[in-house]
Amino acid sequence: xxxxxxxxxxxxxxxMLIVMIxxxxxxxxxxxxxxxxxNKLYRDSSKxxxxxxxxxxxxxxxxxxxxxxxxxxxxxxxxFDLKIAAARIKTAAANFKQSKLALLPGIxxxxxxxxxxxxxxxxxxxxxxxxxxxxxxxxxxxxxxSSAKRAALASLLQSESYKKAVQTQLVADIVINYYSLxxxxxxxxxxxxxxxxxxxxxETMKALKESNVVTGAAVVQxxxxxxxxxxxxxxxxxxxxxxxxxxSLLLGKxxxxxxxxxxxxxxxxxxxxxxxxxxxLANRPDVQEAENQLRNSFELVNVARTYFYPSFTITGATGxxxxxxxxxxxxxxxxxxxxxxxxxxxxxxxxxxQRLAVAQANQEEYLNAFKKTLLVxxxxxxxxxxxxxxxxxxxxxxxxxxxxxxxxVDYTKQLLEYSSATNYTDVLTSEQSLLAAELAGVNDKLxxxxxxxxxxxxxxxxxx
Length: 464
What we know:
The protein is of the alpha+beta class.
């Protein structure tokens, strides 16, 4: 080998070394933002045991009502939002598969035949036949194709996280609507029982009037009092029907009756372990989705950078070519060639700069969205914990309130019957206060159950 050839080999080796060094600088590896997670995300709940986290419990263990479990399973099987999310996963999986194949050479089969009349003075048409395959391969020197593959993988993971987030929300929606249905049912029973008592009270007032204990005004007021309670029943029944319709929609079926237990039968989880904020990245699907979106945008910035550098393409072809079909596969007519080319962008009307600027702006947007998602998650955990605490305090106070209001009703009725120290207005006031407290007591119980559900969802439970 001459000096000139050795010099060319040396320059080629130096060039490839420079290319490899620069390639390492262009496509940067993704790193999770260091300042994303704070131990104070849960506000007052900063000292927790990572081993205890209710988000790791499956929804079957969390909600033990068998009727509710069957509703949740039916929703997971038939809910249309979940089916839409599954379809998105298929799309992302197809894109990821294609991004992996982009690293391989492309191969095409090229059979051809041509006939050409060369001159009007000549007879016949010269014939040319060819058959072969051609290939083209772009060397991924700058990491463009690898970065695009990682971006497609992030999109696939994002779509899978989206499906988990949909299921988490679905489970929470089914449970909350189910408990709301039980609460409306409990309030309906309280109201119907009160109407029955008020009807008996009307008869009592009529008897007391005949004994000249009360006036006709008390009888009329007792009648009005009865109807003031009874008039709320249609609204409660409407709420029950609309909640059943909403549950049916979540279950992916036409509106129908929802078979249910009672509010008193619902077991409330008291061990509300939240783990540590860092576990949100592993448990909460919308946080995972936001980070995968950030990762996708990061890799697309890598891709955008590679457009400023030359692309290396190797093409080749092999096959047979002959002027006679009968001689096409003669070994003497075999051909093959291999070529390499380099394309360096020089003037692209600012498209490369625009592509990079857009990719960087998207990365900044999704970084802030990721951080915001974590803050929202921490807020929801803190809100649910305090709501649960507040519901317990309210239930304790409500029991005392109802007990004293019940005594107030009994005392005023006895005073009305056996003494002139009171009138029916006092009875009416105490009865209305008692009914309001009993209905509010149902809402207190619902608040407690809802707080447990919201905490379970905010920690990322429900998709396992």
